[in-house]
Amino acid sequence: MDQPKIVLSLMFFTMAFAFYGMTALLYIINWVFRKRWIGQTATAMAIISAFTMLMMLIARAGESGHAPFSNLYESMALFVWALTVGYLVLEFRYKLKTLGAFVMTIAFLSVISASMLPYKFKSVAPLNPALQNKWKWMVNLFSKVGLENYAIGWLDFHVFATFIGYAAFAIAFGISIMFLLKLRNEEHGNSGLFSRLPESKLLDEISYRAIAWGFPFLGVGIVSGAVWANYAWGTYWSWDPKETWSLITWFVYAAYLHARVTRGWKGKRCAWLSILGFLAVMFLYWGVSFILPGLHAYA
Amino acid sequence: MSKDKEKTVLQKTLRKRIWSFFNSVLLTIGTMLSLALVSIIGTVVEQNKDMETYIQEYGEKWAGYISWAGFNDMFHTWWFSALLGLLVINILVCTIERFPPKWKVLLANKPNFSPTFIDKLQHRKVFTVNADKDATDTILKSFFKKKRYKFLEESAKDGSSAFYAWKGVIGRYGSDFTHISLFVILAGAIIGSVYGYKSFKVITVGSTINMEKRAGFNLRLDKFWIDYYDTGQIRQYNSILTVVEDGKDIVEKQIWVNEPLLYKGIRFYQSSWGTSWNKVDAAEIGFKRKDDEESSTIVRVKWNTKVDIPDSPYAVKVIGYAADFAFDDARKAVFSKSMEADNPAVMVELYKDGEHISSPWLFLKYPGLFSSIPDSDDSLIFEGYRGVLFSGISVNKDPGTNVVWVGSCIMGIGFILAFFIFHKRLYINIKSNGSSTEVKIGGVINKNTMALEKELEVFCDHFEKKQKTHKREF
Ligand code: HEM
User: Which of B189, B406, B413, B473 is the most exposed place for a label (fewest CB within 10 A)?
Assistant: First the structure.
């Protein structure tokens, strides 16, 4: 039995590893020394990193013959990529480069943890019967030009939506931490390194916006997972640990939104809820995969 | 009399209290976090295992507590349902309480035209345009048109005009759509659990699933096969099923994991496979002569087909199989203890010179255990077999599924409205100062204040573009 070759994707991953390290470092230096050219280099580096990660995903898809979301390692690459793209959108909108010092550090830590995964979570494997799900209309459409292998289905849709949600929550998490640091700093005379972070009110607002993106996407992820499960297993909901944890996570963020919109919660309490929510995301993503048994092999 | 009155007052306050208890969003937050918390238990304690598993894992005492509290089947306990019920009543009460007033306020659209009102707003801008009032009016209206604002206009006695512009009111209803969708989804789940059913059938090729009583048709398995990757891993299980109604073939369909057959509201899923425990495709039967220890004649016998053994007066036919042979004394019948081929045995009919003389069982693992040919020292030996694959089909009727999907779509609409459409309201005052005109704008948004600030900037830019020379003051 031949192991499929994974040289190209490994090469891109290694490059991305280095680039992400540099990006995080540049953003931190920019935060500390506030040099314009360093900030610009950091942004450029972030774009290059995202591009390299995208190339890694494409190479991986070529090597495995299916969309690169089928194990923990591939999904981490997707997560990091979505996180970076989300961050870059944020940076261009609000022109706040200090966010990068935190968010891109989370991205780099994620790349490190992906690289440390044991081999069995990294290897290229063909899809098992339950994971083969493609939209028929798409297969029909693509087969006219001979590209039917590139059609996608509920699996891809489900994973993609879920990961946009995770990435948004990760951004909200990073910014909530910044918020707490900045708030403490504001209360204690507003000097030093943390005084250079954006105003706490703004941070509070941005992390809320990130959650307002993550929440519907996780919702779509959960529903599309149910649709797919209904095709594959004959039930749309079976209280499997992954499903249950996604609901738990979703409820934590729902509580956040309700507290904010209807009770007028702001600031500290919201930041802690956002951090709690991200702890749930991390357990949903990694904890369930490693600790709890279930139908989901990963992600 | 006064006692009765007291009683009704008491009842009224009690009713009010209960109502306001359910009208609290704090209750919502508490219930959602509690649901999250107890759900964690349901994922940490394995669900629906038998008692021994829990005793092994947690010890006798804790296993007792677990089963007492229902943690072993958490999502079906009364108290989990009660929490969900609490959430439902909570949403219902909150919606009843808040929807009509919200509707009224949003429909009324009674703007505040007083210029001092703008000064009270948190987000506002004031600037002067080097143009007369009519020209400024035109620029303003072009902004409304470009950004698709609806607006009202009112002129005051002192020559100034007030504008009220708004858009995205529909975004306000996002939360209502979302909440209603939760009801629809829940209704779908309840319909499914009341009117639906689920079962699992195992069938071999050629046999049928009998759905006559339940649905008035039968289902025949025509073919079952497994696709493999080059590496040897399983790629897919496939079955070809035919719906038979009133003895006629109606529909034929190939199903696989992820591709069920739907007929008359019932879905048939490919869910497992295996080797049959009571039937073989073919068996290899050896014929051994007493005086010839070395060699035996092996014949391949297909199921239920008579085959002659060469150079002998005998013929055999395989008519029975048990994967895990066992004998039921009470019924005097052979059966298979399990689906595993732990002790495979076949039953053959033996013919001598065309005449049926006996029907012995032959064992793969115990050749020659019983004398297989009566009044002879020659013997028959069960040498090997090729099994029949069976297909495991889940049969599932869930009339609530489509309701759940409708609910999910409503939820999607609710999300788009709630998170991506903002209710923006702009209050604008224009006052002529001779050749120049003063513009004062303030805004309100239901959420995402950054979007409002951006909009106000765009507003200023719009004037800047249309009117090159102007002085801004903040
Ligand atoms: C226990 C029941 C619930 C109650 C009483 C409740 C109540 C409310 C109220 C009063 C609002 C504000 C309405 C407005 O501003 O127009 C709201 C907003 C919202 N609710 Fe609920 N809610 C409940 C459960 C849920 C659940 C389970 C979800 C979904 C998971 C949900 C999703 C939303 C969304 C998406 C919003 C809009 C949030 C925003 O605008 O940022 N609600 N809810």
Answer: B473
